[in-house]
């Protein structure tokens, strides 16, 4: 006997109805799982967001009050500047003997490694050592010719940073927020100081010292440094100390330099040093960056939540985080003297063309006595955070153009390596330094106890 196929409508078989229900249930389960994950993220992120709000409002009102007090109480400002000069003059960061060294600065303490936790951030925290090993293995650098910098002390850091900000680093939760590695929040702070912040402070010492070496020998490269997201009162983006700002203030006092140009070619906006020197006419900032990638993480979570959520109520927390980061960046963006925005997907030829034009404009607008070059390699094609499509050879050409710009004008130049989130970054940086040596823009050999610039 043959039974007719059970149907629910004119032509719809029962098995199709069950398939539709399974698909619907699966989709709903996936949506609920994603929502639960994002709710968990928001719950964990709420303390960070609250801190960010408090920190931002504190910075805003303190800057407002300082502006009003500076006009009504100029003596206070003078006293603060005197204290800054006193700290700079008493610092030991310029003390290392460099007479028989080349102006390449590195310490084995730069590299960050602790039980693999450092791998939770996309930044390659061992690239600094690998750069030097590449240079030594190919005969362009001798180990005993590398300058080993001192650690920046608290008094050194207070030249730029507030006491409140430095005290905030005694809380591992705050350090976790700045480094963007959540498990750091669960570590005892003495361990965080030793394994995370000490390497950063050593790199700060390297950037500060680089200015002195550049003044003496025409150029200097700190294999680390370039923490351009950190300002005097706020850290972030894996940047805990404002080494660029510190380097410049030391140069003002100890090297008698009065005009500095920052050339920031990291893919991200240098919102830290821009905040610090926003109204300082002694500093000219050329920042060439991708405006569509920062704050990247906030935008991603907002996008994912909007896809999987049916209601809008929890959007406010993510939007608040996104708004705060965007507001801070937009405020700092107003302080850029020469803004060059390169969109996602920009290729090598277009990037280098825009750089040539930017350098020509900068050279005609400002005559610096020192250049601080933030040479991030996150512009490389394939970098997960940069969004640009510049080839390794393009990075090498970029660095050559900047050094040639300085050399043609006889301006001392400091290079820091900044961001770069691929394992290939170290090789590219080493190849770029080798190219600078081959082109005669730097000299990494020691002749008679003194580095000679060809």
UniProtKB/TrEMBL annotation:
Its cofactor is Zn(2+). GO terms for molecular function: histone deacetylase activity; hydrolase activity. The keyword Endoplasmic reticulum does not apply. Keywords: Chromatin regulator, Hydrolase, Repressor. Gene3D superfamilies: Histone deacetylase domain. CDD domains: HDAC_classIV (cd09993). It comes from the Eukaryota. This is Histone deacetylase 2. It comes from Gossypium australe.
């Amino acid at each position: 006997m043959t039974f007719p196929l059970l149907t629910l409508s004119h032509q719809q078989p029962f098995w199709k109805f069950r398939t539709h229900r399974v698909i619907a249930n699966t989709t709903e389960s996936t949506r609920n799982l994603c929502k639960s994950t994002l709710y968990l993220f928001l719950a964990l992120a709420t303390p960070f967001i609250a801190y960010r709000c408090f920190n931002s409002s504190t910075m805003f009102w303190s800057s407002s009050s300082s502006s009003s007090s500076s006009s009504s109480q100029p003596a206070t400002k003078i006293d603060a500047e005197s204290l800054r000069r006193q700290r700079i003059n008493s610092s030991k960061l310029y003390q290392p003997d460099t007479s028989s060294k080349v102006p390449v600065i590195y310490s084995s303490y730069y590299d960050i490694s602790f039980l693999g936790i450092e791998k939770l951030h996309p930044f390659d925290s061992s690239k600094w050592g690998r750069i030097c090993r590449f240079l030594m293995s190919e005969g362009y650098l001798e180990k005993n010719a590398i300058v080993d910098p001192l650690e920046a002390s608290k008094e050194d850091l207070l030249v730029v940073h507030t006491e409140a900000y430095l005290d905030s680093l005694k809380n591992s939760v705050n350090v976790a927020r700045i480094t963007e590695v959540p498990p750091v929040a669960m570590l005892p702070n003495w361990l965080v100081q030793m394994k995370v912040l000490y390497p950063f402070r050593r790199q700060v010492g390297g950037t500060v010292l680089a200015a002195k070496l550049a003044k003496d020998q025409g150029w200097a490269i700190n294999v680390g440094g370039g923490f351009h997201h950190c300002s005097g009162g706020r850290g972030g983006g894996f940047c805990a100390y404002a080494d660029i700002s510190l380097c410049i203030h030391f140069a003002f006092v100890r090297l008698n330099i009065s005009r500095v140009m920052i050339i920031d070619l990291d893919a991200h906006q240098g919102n830290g040093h821009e905040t610090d020197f926003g109204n300082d006419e002694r500093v000219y900032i050329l920042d060439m960056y991708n405006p569509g990638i920062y704050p990247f993480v906030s935008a991603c979570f907002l996008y994912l939540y909007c896809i999987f959520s049916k209601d809008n109520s929890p959007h406010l927390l993510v939007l608040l985080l996104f708004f705060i980061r965007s507001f801070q960046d937009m405020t700092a963006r107003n302080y850029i003297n020469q803004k060059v925005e390169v969109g996602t997907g920009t290729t090598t030829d277009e990037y280098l063309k825009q750089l040539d034009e930017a350098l020509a404009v900068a050279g005609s607008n400002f005559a610096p006595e020192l250049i601080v070059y933030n040479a991030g390699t996150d512009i490389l094609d394939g970098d997960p955070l940069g969004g640009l499509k510049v080839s390794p050879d393009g990075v090498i050409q970029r660095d050559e153009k900047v050094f040639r710009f300085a050399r043609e004008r006889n301006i001392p130049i400091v290079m820091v390596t900044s961001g770069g989130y691929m394992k290939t970054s170290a090789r590219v940086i080493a190849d770029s330094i080798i190219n600078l040596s081959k082109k005669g823009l730097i000299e990494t050999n020691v002749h008679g106890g003194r580095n000679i610039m060809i």
